[in-house]
Amino acid sequence: MKNGILLAVPTTGDRGMKETVSDIFAKAPTFTFIDIVDEKVTKVRVEENTASQLKQGTGPIVMKNLKDKGVDVVVAGELGPGAKTLLEFSNIKMIHVERGLEVSQAVERVLEEIRTATSVT
Q1: Cα separation of 19 and 5, whole Å?
Q2: Which of 2, 31, 63, 79 has the fewest CB atoms within 10 Å, i.e. is most exposed?
Q3: Helices 58-69 and 81-89 sit at what angle, rounded to 10 degrees?
Q4: CATH value at residue 51
Q5: Which one-letter DSSP state was computed for residue 79?
């Protein structure tokens, strides 16, 4: 496993780690991207999800953007079957969290999962 991972979290706004995980995935207003190196957050950036304004085809466009950015893990509250399939096809791991969770809490869950996976191997 490489020591750095890039998380993508669909979010409701632009407050970074203090923002709330969106109830929706592809149509979320923003995505918060979190770089983690050696189990520490090194960078947080928020980007507007321009595909959220589309009437159709949002999911594949969002997935292409995430793959192009090099996202390793998506942390989300809810994903439809199409998005799950696209994540699997793109080799992007999915970690499910409760809807409405704060991004900082979601990141802590991911770090806990990384620690658990590391201690098992």
Answers
A1: 20
A2: 2
A3: 30
A4: 3.30.420.130
A5: -
d(CA 7, CA 80): 19
What domain range is 91 assigned to? Answer: 4-120
Sheet holding 40-48, edge to edge: 40-48, 30-37, 4-11, 73-76, 93-96
Per run of 10 residues, the mean pLDDT along the chain (length 121 residues) is 84 96 93 95 97 90 94 90 89 90 94 77 46
The whole-angstrom separation of Cα 96 and Cα 110 is: 10
Tell me the CA distances in angstroms from 33 to 7, 17, 81, one per residue in order.
Answer: 6, 10, 23
H helix intervals, 2-121? 58-69, 81-89, 103-120
- Overall domain count for the chain: 1
What is the rounded distance in angstroms from the CA atom of residue 66 to the CA atom of residue 6?
A: 10
| Amino acid residing at 82 | G
Would the CA dihedral through 98, 99, 105, 109 be positive or negative? positive
